[in-house]
C-alpha cells in the first residue's frame, strides 16, 4: 500500500505529507502536554486552597471547641460557606457529633489527597482532620468534611476535549495546506535539487528544459545560467588554486589568512610542523586564540589582533604558541591587511617564523649573566668588609644559642650563623649567603607543621616595618621554634639595610611548662583531672549554663568494697583497681563530659547540656561497668561497686558549692539504701 501511495503522489510529496502529519502529531503531543500541565496546575491550586482551608478550620474550630463551644456552630457555618464545602460535621473526642452543617451527610473513607479523590470517581473530596490544641498531645475533637469536585472535573474534561479537537483541526489543516501549496512546485524543485546535488559532487550537469514563462520557468532559466557561470569560475579557480598551493604549502614558515571579522580562512601545512595541530584542526576551532596562544600572552595578543583587523600592519611580535603535546614554542608574527583591486579589505595575512632556538639561547645567556652578577655582588660585598671584624662577628654569632639570619633589601641572605643551620637542618659547611629568602622558605617548608599559616604570617611581616612579637612555629618532628624579626636601619634616614631574623628552639621550655601544668591538673596515678581542675571546670560550666540557660549535671560516686581490697591485698592492688576503673569508665564518658578523681576512691563526672534521663542513664552505665570488673589478687577474686549521687544545676542548686553538696547528700543516700545504686538529689533550688 505504501508503494502504491508513493507512485500516486510522488516520493517528495509523500514526504511532505508525512512531515506535515508528523508536525501535527508533535503539536498534538504538545497540546496534550500543555493539557497535563494546566490540569496539574488546576489540581494543585485546588489542593492548596483546601490545605489552607484545613489549617484555618483546624485553628478556629479547635480554639472554639475548647474556649467557646457556643460559637462553634457559627464558625462551622461560616467556614462551610467560605470554603465551598458540601457537608461539615464536628465530633468531640468521644466521637459524638456536636455540629453538622450542609448535606446530604454522605461521607466515605477519607481520601489521602485530592488526586486520590479524583481517581475514586465519587466527585467529592472527603476529609478527616484531628483538631489539635497547643500543649495537648491527644486531639480535642475530629472534623469531617466533604468538598464538591464537580466543578474541577468539568473544567478538566472541557480542557481535555478542547485540546484534542484543536490538535485534530491543526493536523488536518496543515496537511491540506502543504499539499495544496507545494503540489505544483515539487516537480521543478526536484529537478533543480537533483542537478544541485550533482554540482556539489563536481559532476557534469545538463541544462534543464525551460517551459513557459512563469516563476518556475524563470527559476529554471536562472539556475541554468548559474550552472554555466559556476563551471567557468570553477575551472579558473582550480588553475589559480593549484598555483597558489604550489607556492604557499611549501613555504617553510606558517602562512595564514584571516577574514575581516577575524575568522581563519586558510593556513598552510607548516602549522602542523610548528604546533602539531593540522590545518583542519585550526579551521574548525571555535576559539583559535585559546587553542594556540599561551594564556600569559592572550591579553596583549588580543590587543594586537584588534589593531590588525582595524587595518594596521605589524612585525616582529614575539608570542608563545601552545603545541598539541602541551609544550611551548616561540614564534615571531608579521601581519598586513589584504585588499582587492577595488580597495575592499579581504582580511589579514599573517606570517609566523619559529624562533624557539633563538629564545632558548637568549634564556641561557640571561641565566649566565644573572649567575655572574650574583657572584660579582657577593665578591664585592665581602671585599668591602674587614676580615678581622667579620671573623669576630661570626665567632660571636656562632657562640650564641639563637639562630640569626640577616637578609638584605633585595631578599637575599647575607649571613646565617651556625645555630640557624642547626635549627633548620642545613649542613654546617653550607654557604647560604646570596640565597633568596623565598628559596630558604621553600627548602625548610617540609619541617613546618602548617606551611600555609606560616607563609601568610611572613607576607604580613614583610609588608610592615615594626618589629614583630615572638611567634612560636610548630615543626613536624615535635620541636617548637620561636621566631622574631626586625628591620635594620641604615645611616640614611628612612632607609633600611635589610631585616634580621632570630630563631630559638624553645621545645624543652614548652615541654617543661606543659609538664608543670599537667602535674598541677592531673592525678598522677590515674591521669584523670584532679580536684583543683574539678573546681575550676565546675565554676566555668555553671557560668556557661547560666548564660545559655541550660542544665549542668554532676555525678559524684565512690567505691563500695574498696577499703577491704586495700586492707587485704595492699595498696598496689588498690592502685590497680583505681587505674583500671579510670580506663574502663573513661571509655564510656562522652567528649563533652569531664571525668575527675577527687581523691582516694571518690570520683566525679561533669555533664553539660543534659537532663535527668541522660544523667540516670550515665549513672547506670557507670555502675554496670564497675560492677562488671573482676580483679584477681594472690589467687583470690575481688570486686567493687559504686554508690552514685546526682545533682543538677539549677534544679537542685544555684552554685558550685551547693551543687557539690546536693550530689554528696544523694551519694550517701545511695550508700544508706544498700550501696551499688544511684540516687537523684531531692533538693530543689531555694530550699
Secondary structure elements and their pairing?
Blueprint (H helix, E strand, L loop, with lengths): L1 H8 L1 H57 L4 H12 L1 E8 L4 E6 L11 H7 L3 E8 L9 E8 L1 H33 L3 H15 L14 H34 L5 E5 L5 E4 L2 H6 L3 H6 L3 H5 L5 H12 L4 E9 L5 E12 L5 E10 L1 H28 L3 H13 L3 E6 L4 E4 L1 H7 L12 H7 L7 H13 L7 E4 L5 E10 L6 E10 L1 H15 L9 H18 L3 E9 L1 H8 L1 H16 L7 E6 L2 E7 L3 H16 L3 E3 L2 E3 L2 E9 L6 H17 L4 E4 L7
The strand count comes to 21
Distance between the termini: 104 Å
Give the DSSP E fraction (strand runs of 2 or more residues): 15-25%
Average pLDDT reading: 81
* CATH fold-level topology of the largest domain: Alpha-Beta Plaits
Number of helices: 22
Class inferred from helices and paired strands: alpha+beta
What top-tier CATH class of the largest domain fits best? Alpha Beta
Instruction: Based on the coordinates given, report the CATH architecture of the largest domain.
Output: 2-Layer Sandwich
Described by strand count, sense and barrel closure, the largest sheet is: 5 strands, antiparallel
Integer-rounded radius of gyration: 47 Å
Form type? flat
How many structural domains can be distinguished in the coordinates? 5
Strand order of the largest sheet: 6-5-9-8-7
